[in-house]
Predict the structure.
Amino acid sequence: MDFLAQADFWRPFFRWLHVVAGIMWIGHLWYFNFTQTPTMPKIPTELRPAVVRYILPEALFWFRWGAMLTLILGLILAWLNGYLLDALKLGIGTHNGRVVAIGWGMWLGIIMWFNVWFIIWPNQKKVIGLTSATPDEVNAARRTAGLASRVNTMLSIPMSYAMIFAPHWYGGMTA
Amino acid sequence: MESLLNNLWATIIAGFVLTVILAVVIHAMA
């Protein structure tokens, strides 16, 4: 069990946990944007409450806590790897392409996490009825949450590029 | 911006365009 005392064990272990949590988060994000939102207009009006009352609250639970876990595990991972502060400074001054890449990925991920917890979730709480709102407010909230969700779908593409590129970019290792 | 985000495929294409820009920026900074 000596390996449990080795950082070489915990670094990939936390990377694995971070990726699993990220799949939980981005999987739900893409479910909302690729499946649920485009399908809702095709669902007969009388059946839509089934989605909003039963599927949406459950999906939002795993979505927002997946985002939280991904962020926390990602920060732990960056700290274990020794580049947390350098990456948050976008690798400026390090001349290390991997740190530049992961820094951009981290900032895109942090923006996306902020969108989840401070724009999408407060607005979705009105949609699923956890926060009282008039029908007009619910419509406005659905629109705002939907736009923020689309922004995150757009950002998930460059974010995942930077995240995946960073540890596998051999040309970007310290010069 | 809103009309771009209303269209799922336009959003995805915008994501790939941003990725190309980001790749150039990362290489320039590295």
